Amino acid sequence: MFTIKIRQTLKPFSHQIPTRCLIPKTTVAVAFAPGILKFQDFISDQEFSLSMEVKGPISNFTVEQEIDRGKVIVFMETATGYFRYVMFRDRENLILKFEKMPRKGILIDFQNVKDVYFKKDELILFKMPYTPPMGKRAQLFLGCNKAQDAELIARRSDLKEILPLLFALAQETPIIDEEIKMEGAFELFGHLKQHLEERDLKKAETDLLALYGAGFEDMFIPRANDTDFQGVTKTTSTQNPALILNQLKSLILSLFVKIEGEEIYILPHLLPSFVSGRLKGVTTSFGKIDLEWSKKQLKRVAIYATDNQKLIIKFPKKLKSYRLTVDRWWTDTERLTHSPLRVIAKHNYYLDRFKN
What is the pLDDT of residues 297-306, one digit of tens each? Predict the structure, then answer.
């Protein structure tokens, strides 16, 4: 028996003024600056701003997007003291909460109403017109533990640190019920899917990196068009930018686990750069799946069954057998990879010692 763990905390940050990022569980992009917040909701098309009477000079300005905890934290040193607030959504509203304030508070001007706010005060910004994503999300780790400075991440352009962040953010983004057109940055999904079907994984990796460059700006905010004109798209789009995150959610998952009826494909499209990694908490019709690989070889798979089902697991082609342990008491020391696996609800199945 074993446990596959991912200890990495996803908390990208920026010191840029302004810093623009999404609020988790919403499609609201906010540009944060010491004295003003500018809001844009991709679904409702609302745009508005909020002013803060902050006295400079400002130092140590920081925006942290805590994806794991579903909030954005902003803090800074002002001429009158330390200032820190958090923005998040509850089930119905987008909320601004003041955690640390200068002693005399801060004057806020919002929707033509001015008021002084103090420590622990909350301001409801607006009612959210859509349901937030529910349930525990899957986690992805691709071996990168570097500091999550958004500007450095963009400069390094390393999918091993970019993809886990986008995968997490995509799962925290509400589903938009709109048809996808292969225009603007969405063109790159077509190229990527074609190369995956052709098993040209090197080109697929190039496509995925191009999609990140064309389809995102600032701190992982999706955009429908490449406004940096990098020469990777030929058309323009008027589609909702948040659809990019909706599409990425299933596409990223399909690189590592793909489910078609009774068949489960494990590591069907492992891209060249993803030498090692872990995927945890993938929800299926029969339970949850965790997996781990190293040196491009599958090492461990855990299945936590919640329903009875016969599974046909499609492992990487070179693998011929593995050890199967059920709960803590039963072990099949050399089970052939082509044999179906019947899982029973409330039992755990551990697969390891894979052999070619």
Answer: 999 999 999 9
